[in-house]
Amino acid sequence: MRSTTTALYDRRRLKDGVLAALVPVAACSVALAGLTAWIGTGEAGSPARMNVTEGRVLLPSAGVTETAAFFRMENKGGSADTLIRVTSRDVPGGITLARHRMNEGNGAYRAGVESVGIPAGGSVVMSPQGVDLTVSAPASKWRSGDLVPFTLEFRRSGRVKVLAVVVRPGSASFQ
User: What is an example of a Pfam family matching this protein (predicted)?
Assistant: First the structure.
């Protein structure tokens, strides 16, 4: 037969054990409820989903072998993505990703860049004042209104094929 003191000690140990277990269980329950609500919004952990639109290539001037191309890149996913490469079968001389920069003397220059980040739920609009593509234009092949196929390669979303219309400089808006 057990003594009353031993029985009280056993009950108290059981109560303390239950209370000690209740704290992490409650914390995990609150965290799980928060994660469930976040996932329920539909964006938590969703992959990047790139949408590329408004492709334009400036019609090169006579005798000039390079021009510029511009696109609007929208990331409709829940993860950031990065533009890492652009190709086109109609641009045999190559395509360079570039960014407009200003130096200390207020002089502008263009610098090649390796990639361009597009935040989750965000967009990047290429323009002459920001990021654009330097395109080696085929000699007198393009006319205003022509469509030029491009493939934009993103680190997470993979390849996105899009057409860019050839436009006269000054007729393209960048917004």
Answer: PCuAC
The CA R_g of the chain, rounded to the nearest whole Å, is 29
What DSSP designation does 65 have? -
Q: Which residues pair with 133 in a beta bridge?
A: 69, 97
Which pLDDT tens digit goes with each residue over 96-105?
Answer: 998 876 556 6
- Considering the chain, what is the average pLDDT of its residues? 83
Closest CA to 48 of 21, 13, 78, 26: 78
Q: Is the model's pTM score more than 0.85?
A: no
Nearest to 174 by CA among 88, 8, 55: 55
Write the CB contacts of 43 (distance below 8 Å, at least 6 apart in sequence).
77, 78, 120, 121
**Rounded Cα distance, 175 and 39, in Å:** 32
Residue 120 in tokens:
């989750």
What pLDDT was estimated at residue 108? Answer: 56
